[in-house]
């Protein structure tokens, strides 16, 4: 599908369409791959007093306490092990259990 879209943009009669849309399509694809692909965060766990993220390949990463954005609906974390430009990760606390939400709230209140 993406190859078909790329070919359509390259063969478009107006070359500025391809010049403007192809980089945007590439960034969108990279973002989707980082958030939903093989190395995307799959599970957030509280172990030994710290929060850990398990990615799609089963690797554990320590969740840093640095948050980029906080709202009533979502939290955005900085994940240093991801490629440059894709280091943010959005978490909807509704995806967590009641106990995990309580632990996450207490973790985020720490200075």
Summarize the main sheet. 3 strands, antiparallel
Q: Could you tell me the number of beta strands?
A: 6
Give the termini separation.
Answer: 47 Å
Helix content: 25-40%
* Low-pLDDT windows of residues: none
Largest sheet: spatial strand order: 1-2-3
Envelope shape: elongated
| Average pLDDT rating | 76
User: DSSP helix count?
Assistant: 3
- Structural class of the helices, strands and pairings? alpha+beta
Strand-residue proportion: 25-35%
The radius of gyration computed from the alpha-carbon positions, rounded to a whole number of angstroms, is 18 Å
Sequence of secondary-structure elements: HHEEEEEEH
Tell me what the structure shows:
- Helices cover 39% and strands 25% of the residues.
- It starts with a helix and ends with a helix.
- It is of the alpha+beta class.
- The strands form two sheets. The protein has a three-stranded antiparallel β-sheet with strand order 1-2-3, with helices on one face.
- It has three helices and six strands, in the order ααββββββα.
């Amino acid at each position: 599908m993406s190859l078909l879209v790329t070919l359509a943009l390259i063969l478009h009669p107006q070359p500025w369409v391809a010049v403007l849309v192809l980089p945007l399509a590439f960034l969108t694809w990279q973002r989707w791959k980082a958030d939903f692909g093989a190395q995307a965060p799959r599970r957030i766990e509280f172990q030994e007093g710290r929060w850990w993220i398990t990615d799609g390949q089963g690797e554990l990463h320590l969740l840093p306490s640095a948050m980029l954005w906080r709202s009533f609906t979502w939290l955005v974390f900085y994940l240093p092990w991801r490629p440059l430009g894709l280091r943010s990760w959005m978490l909807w606390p509704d995806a967590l259990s009641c106990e995990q939400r309580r632990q996450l709230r207490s973790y985020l209140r720490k200075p």
